[in-house]
User: What shape does this take?
Amino acid sequence: MSIAVVFPGQGSQFVGMGKDIYESNAKAKELFDRAESIVPGLKKVMFEGPEEELKKTDFTQPAIFVHSISLYEASKERLGGKAAYLAGHSLGEYSALYAAGALDFETAVKLVRKRGALMQDASSKTKGSMAAVLGLDKAKIEELCEKVKGEGYLAPANFNSPGQVVVSGDTAAVEAGEIIAKELGAKRYIKLIVAGAFHSNIMQPAADGLKEAINGFDIKDAQVPVVANVSASEVKTADEIKELLVKQVVSPVLWVDSVEYMKSKGVDTFIETGPGGVLAGLIKKIDRSVKIYNIGKAEDIENLNI
Assistant: This one.
């Protein structure tokens, strides 16, 4: 058995997230309390809401990171350091880098908070949005983006599973894309409730801000291989990690290729650690033959049997 631990990104948040692990696990409680000192009000927003506040990127990103890492630390004993590879979807890459020893907890929370604030700011400057397109291949997605050019900029943002690609861009282009996508044979076109056009050129100001800020953070070489979103290959050195985290803000998430890469290296078991179960569902669509586990709440740790 070869295991990869994977961590979810933005969109997996919900009001009440983390309350069970906070109340039942001493290590998790300590991590939440340490995060609270860096992001005041975080616990209240996570445990009680309101949802609108939790959806703000500068709260969402630390919330998902802290929840994911609290579950990871609480389940570490059962995992027994068995992870051969680590990966995360978008924001989840920061959780993977923490698990790989490239980021310590305080550094990761501060960096994630900075990333969230930069993305929130970029979103407020240019009206952008995203949509999930089901049933079109890469060539058809490129055709879709080309055909809406008259309405604005649109680009692939996440290659999530075969037949599920998220597009991102100007709101007018996302709106116009629905009719064209269906003409091209899309089964569904689902507009996402997000703060902006993530993983697109609209996020360039956020990437520029992160590039300027990232050298002020202590990032080390990864002790376990992390499969990066941008390249769908292993990243280990601190310099490469910094470079790819900046690129990731404006580049598509190559999730299908990342999973395929880990499988090519012998991974046959994936454990998603964090809120929701989105990645477990995507991996199942990529390859039904691999084993998939989900640690999304405290009780899942007790039920984990690998």
Notes: The CA atoms of residues 21 and 297 lie 7 Å apart. The longest helix spans residues 57-79.
